[in-house]
Design the sequence.
DNA sequence: CAAGCAAACTGAACTAGACCAAGAAACCCT
DNA sequence: AGGGTTTCTTGGTCTAGTTCAGTTTGCTTG
């Protein structure tokens, strides 16, 4: 039997072991050492197989806490413009937001380029971690133009959607969005916020919001646990 | 020094070693055993570090052939509606397409659902592998409605864009597209077409094309090497 | 000179352990 | 009952090798 066949077998055996084990989405898997007792292999090989299941999005891990069965992916319609909490709850899941940072700072070169301003111009920086059904799945860094949203830091930024605030308190509607999407590895700041191992695969979504006058008003960098979402989108192509 | 620090150090040391080594994008790295001579660690640890650089998209591997420095990502505008070859060449890269399969078959449940037909209805199945600058980066499976595109298999499907064929030969314009995006692991069919290890991280793009009458005419599943692309998109949100 | 074959190299996969530090749980004392 | 401390479990990382199979390369032969 070729070696790669064995790896494939191990993955299948492991998967059967897990699914027949009457595990439900979000449940913790037995410990690596316990799994070994049923699998006749070594820890490193087992971890390799677990990592592959992780890459496929069937299981995930929380750093030093264990492996878990992945819940179904959240469907995220990029153009629906739905706030996070509404999007999550419309799919019968429970949403939560935690505020990690909120202060004024100087725009980095990247942020400045995106917002069409000079490097070092003051911006509001808001960093949040968001959960679905108690699991941290999203780490977001927002950067807002200070001149568009004066004193926005005074509001309750954990409870309320930013776009909602824009509309209600500042009469700014997001009328155009630009996205950049890609998959990379987690930086260790985002990793620790998501209880994930640094370098684990992540879906990055960078977003720039334009208001009704075409002005770029804010941008954000979203890092999603890659097994937690499926992006959807429907539109007319330009050509 | 904590263990994770060492892992991080190794990654940095390795990265410095590579960049100062005057490697250019697409170049092959020294063999794992050669790298070990400079790094004072073991093979497994080294491979762990290489895998992390791979997850970040800085290097990639071709199965049993070695590790390579990643070229810059191709920017893929989802709504531009540009054929692959034009998109690639407009970014001064060289495009190539290889036809892997082209035949009539029965629609699977998934394909049937997407195209709004009954399972088992005949469809054309076209499978292609596409390269940028000689590197296989994309594996695509197309499924076309037979009634929309009779005898399309007679055309040269490697040389020509499908949407171009639709328009020129069948007077069908793609006037609406629906996407589903996510990141998963490579299945071993796609993996071997891309010379990649099965289970390596991949950006999946599923696309359903609608014609000018709103009819779903074809769908495709694209599997991109995750370090090869950055998706972009600009549109007005619906709310 | 070209084609075919064999050897060397290289990544893929695996074995069989070990130590450490972060979490979780149990425990104890106040 | 509550808060803090200790203990135990668990994942994270590492050592030091081996075996196997696909690629590449170079040599030989017709």
Sequence:
């Amino acid at each position: 039997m070729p070696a790669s066949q064995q790896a494939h077998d191990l993955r299948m055996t492991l998967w059967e072991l897990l699914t027949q084990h009457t595990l439900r989405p979000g449940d913790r898997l037995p410990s690596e050492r316990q799994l070994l007792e049923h699998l006749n292999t070594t820890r490193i090989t087992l971890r390799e197989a677990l990592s592959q299941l992780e890459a496929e999005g069937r299981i995930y891990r929380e750093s030093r806490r264990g492996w878990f069965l992945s819940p179904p992916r959240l469907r995220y319609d990029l153009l629906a413009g739905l706030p996070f909490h509404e999007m999550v709850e419309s799919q019968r899941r429970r949403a939560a937001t935690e505020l990690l940072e909120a202060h004024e700072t100087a725009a980095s070169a990247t942020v400045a380029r995106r917002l069409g301003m000079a490097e070092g111009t003051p911006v509001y920086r808001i960093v949040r971690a968001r959960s679905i059904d108690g699991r941290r799945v999203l780490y977001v860094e927002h950067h807002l133009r200070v001149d568009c949203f004066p004193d926005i830091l005074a509001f309750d930024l954990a409870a309320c959607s930013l776009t909602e605030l824009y509309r209600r308190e500042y009469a700014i509607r997001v009328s155009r969005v630009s996205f950049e999407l890609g998959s990379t590895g987690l930086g260790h700041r985002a990793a620790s916020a998501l209880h994930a191992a640094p370098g684990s695969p992540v879906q990055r979504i960078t977003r720039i919001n334009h208001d009704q006058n075409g002005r770029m008003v804010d941008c954000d960098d979203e890092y999603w646990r890659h097994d937690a979402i499926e992006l959807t989108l429907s539109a007319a192509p330009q050509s």
User: Anything to note?
Assistant: Residues 1-5 of chain B have pLDDT under 50 and may be disordered. Residues 3-69 of chain B form a domain with the Arc Repressor Mutant, subunit A fold (CATH 1.10.10.10). The longest helix of chain B spans residues 3-20. Residues 2-4, 31-33, 47, 61, 63-67, 197 of chain B lie near DNA strand C (CB under 10 Å from a C1').
